[in-house]
Amino acid sequence: MKSNAILFLLFLLPLFCAAQDSPLQWEANSQKNSAASYTITIKASLAEKWHVYADSITDLELEGLHISWDNDNIQKDGKTTATPGATIIKDPVFENRELHVYTGNFTLVQKINITGDVPASLKIALHGFASNNEAFIPLEETKNIQFEGGIAPVAASQIKLQGVDLKHPVLPCGDAHASGQSLLTVFFLGLVGGIIALLTPCVFPMIPVTVSFFTNRASNKNQAIRNGILYGFFIFLIYVLASIPFHVIGNVQPEIFNNISTNAWLNVFFFAVFIFFAVSFFGYFEINLPAGIAGKADAKSSLGSISGIFFMALTLVIVSFSCTGVILGTLLVGTASEGAWSLTTGMAGFGTALALPFALFAMFPNWLKSLPKSGGWLDTVKKILAFAELALAFKFLSNADLVEHWGLLKREVFIGIWLLIALGLGCYLFGWLKLPHDYKGQKISATRKVLGILSFIFAVYLVPGLTPSHYANLTLLSGFPPPLSYSVYGKKNVHGKGVEPHVINDYEKAVQLSAEQNKPILIDFTGWACVNCRKMEEQVWTKPEISSLLTEKFILVSLYVDDRKKLPPSERFTYTFPGGKEKDIETIGDKWATFQSENFGQSTQPLYVILNHEGKLMTHPVGYTPDVKKYEDWLNCGLKAYTSNQ
Known about the structure:
Largest sheet: 6 strands, antiparallel
């Protein structure tokens, strides 16, 4: 069975779809009727020849024009009225069926009742469908309206702290620019991913074939070397260019990278994709891109010298996607929270690993004789990757589960799944588990046996993770399984980090405790899907010298930037940045991600900040700091700064 991997477009062309301009222009306002009653008025204008459907028709799955908002304290008082009313047309889009539509200029009026405090503003959405008998497009647009006498949420005033001076903390210890992984580390990870991709059946057999093509077609050795180097350079260039769109959207929305790595539904999507790829790599079906995509690139590979070589490189990138796509997906999500340059660096490492063999073998064609011949070992590599993809798939599902608090993959369940995968891999490597294209009596190489033993050792290592004992802290895997507090053994505090008092998502409460107990505030900007956050909590915070400092000397407040839980309606607001850009603060994560970026100029996690109760910065913030002594020194420096500032 063959499947078309349209997913290729999701990795290389995520941002090149132009949105059609809306034919509907509108403005909205509110008028106060009484203390808890308002009237919302929308004045709309449609472009010439366009109409908007007025009624919802179930059998046509057609949604009529309507107003909505996300605030349970605000309810409609009666139906929405329109002036002038809808007209009837015979719509050719729906086989000349008679339908009610709005055209030209019209006004919608909706009375509402508000329970509790009246908010200062409300974001309303206008939904429906528009058509001009040729195009048929959905409408989903939002605007903010102001309520007379409304109360602005207190949270709006909490975003920007006045006492934070990043350039001049009380003491200049710590890192002025905290970060997660260095670019060199990211490049190395991309390089490793590329090397793994080289050993797949989609790429490895292409090396001798392509190099032989260059050497046979070239008029002399120098031309063969030139063509091989160009071919490798273009492979590298294509992967780097694929990251450019993320620089564009990163300039528009800096938090897009954190959203990529922590968005629950995107993680569920990657879970499904990895399961799909894993089943394919096991040999149950084959993934092929649509012939037209590779065919068009291949057809242009003979256009001329340099352009032809470029399209040969593009053809390789496209054709090999069925093996490299899943590795690229891991790279995208794994580096996304670090920003666009981190992604570009990772792609550069990946492209370098794929490009070097083609260039080197073109320069030294005699090396081809020492290259292992394609054979059954490639199928073994592919199936080992299938087990790895299966394990990674559940990591993506775990990210979504943690962010949304579904409770599907508690720590022990996750580890149990990885344990079964490790046992399955070991059984396959020893030949006890047969997969497609395996056969009875197949010779098991010494390498496979060694890898099989390592798989069983890894499975044994995972066993303590299923228990409630202190051995359950699997140090080597910190950050990959869910946190120790997210357990099937009845632990109610899923945020637990072994520190008391420990404040969760409530900076104001931390400020109050700081003033009462005369202790500095340690802000822990963290996230459910943050691997390095878990490493810090499980490998650094558990050390006695660190644990005692956090418990006795600081007010610890953890602010989850990826928490998708909605804020109470009264606490939602629209934040206006200094440059005039607006952002809707609707979830806990929205609030603390904005709080972090606005005050400390960073959007990566973990980020640790020491303040006093007046919001004054004690030291430079620090990020991921696995060196226990270095982290302890930074905490002590913060305490010294706090004492000297009193």
